[in-house]
Amino acid sequence: MAIKKIGQIVNSYGLKGQLKVSVTSSRAEERFKPESKIMIEDKEYTITSMMRKNDKIYIISLEGFDDINNIESFIGKEILADVKPLDGSYFYDDLVGATIIGKDGEILGQVETVTKMPASDYLVFNNHYIPFKEDIFISKVDLEEKKIYLTDLAIETLK
User: Are 130 and 116 in contact (CB under 8 A)?
Assistant: First the structure.
């Protein structure tokens, strides 16, 4: 588990102390469901209600807050939560900075960013884009060592 940003409070919503949240989590339905614990400025709060406006905007209520005047100070603050990735998946920020390893241990660069595209997520390094598909382009991810090992197919696509 790790403390990660899952959203940003962009405004209040209505008069009953609800918060309009810009979501940054790919699993927002789970992260913002009622009874979930979140953190705002190192304080823990419990979500009591959630309404989805669209894929990126959710409306939430927090336990103990039922008036717009009580939540105005939250506007602009980040929402954090103690989360863990699904089995076989990774947080983008855990991959950024990882060393890309090719054949025979050759260092090819470091992950600069992870870009989400319709077909796949792509690792970006040295102006190269490699699909993040394990067993096809990625042979191994070692988060402890911050190393990502490429398959022969991935190395061929770099030529």
Answer: no
